[in-house]
């Protein structure tokens, strides 16, 4: 009786028929059993959705960058309004479009009828915040605290009111760099990072952002979350790409935030306001262009290499 997959080789008898046939078992061929699994495809938004996303990014940039700068200079040099009134207007309208989107986005996760389609993998409860939602809420709180503190005095602190964009960069830069370090150290998550459960190895914060944005803004839903997790776990090049992007964006955001903060403090107040609000977004536009080129190159190289690469051994560390 041989195990399944083993082959029996029966040796022929000798000419004198003296020895009985001997059975030799050979193990199954490892060459045929080692099959490389096809690379997991990812959900891609259709053309109309991509157009909506582009319009949304432009609208968010106008909402969070262009309009505050326009209001400040237009009201200060074109009207007789006091600084306190000007900043009251800016604080009142700042982020209105983005916060509205945040509210509708939250409804998809909070409503019991819609949450099964959009929520992270493994979640059985509705009304829970995903990783991106939590960090956006933290950023909103920090920015609003700065604006309220800067406009509270009768003579508003213009330099403090110019700090929201650098503050966002400082926070995201620290988040990306710190989670990249924890990922490389192999530490365990103390909480759920969207679909990545507590107790599993850390993943870069950028990975959580990509998952959440692709699932909701990209309309990929739970299916996209599953695809992204599988792609991350099976492809070393994909993991390396996400890690490099985390370091690149993290360090870049910290550098531009530092430069913007220094300029806000040393240049003339009115100029510093425009620099503080605008410089991080100029940096962001350049970095987005570089990121798109880098990702396309890495994904093309990943697909070219995948067919010739042996599957990773079981239990390989995800870095």
UniProtKB/TrEMBL annotation:
<feature type="transmembrane region" description="Helical">
    <location>
        <begin position="126"/>
        <end position="145"/>
    </location>
</feature>
<feature type="transmembrane region" description="Helical">
    <location>
        <begin position="273"/>
        <end position="295"/>
    </location>
</feature>
<keyword id="KW-1133">Transmembrane helix</keyword>
<feature type="transmembrane region" description="Helical">
    <location>
        <begin position="86"/>
        <end position="105"/>
    </location>
</feature>
<feature type="transmembrane region" description="Helical">
    <location>
        <begin position="165"/>
        <end position="187"/>
    </location>
</feature>
<keyword id="KW-0812">Transmembrane</keyword>
<feature type="transmembrane region" description="Helical">
    <location>
        <begin position="51"/>
        <end position="74"/>
    </location>
</feature>
<protein>
    <submittedName>
        <fullName>Uncharacterized protein</fullName>
    </submittedName>
</protein>
<feature type="region of interest" description="Disordered">
    <location>
        <begin position="1"/>
        <end position="30"/>
    </location>
</feature>
<feature type="compositionally biased region" description="Basic and acidic residues">
    <location>
        <begin position="1"/>
        <end position="13"/>
    </location>
</feature>
<feature type="transmembrane region" description="Helical">
    <location>
        <begin position="241"/>
        <end position="267"/>
    </location>
</feature>
<keyword id="KW-0472">Membrane</keyword>
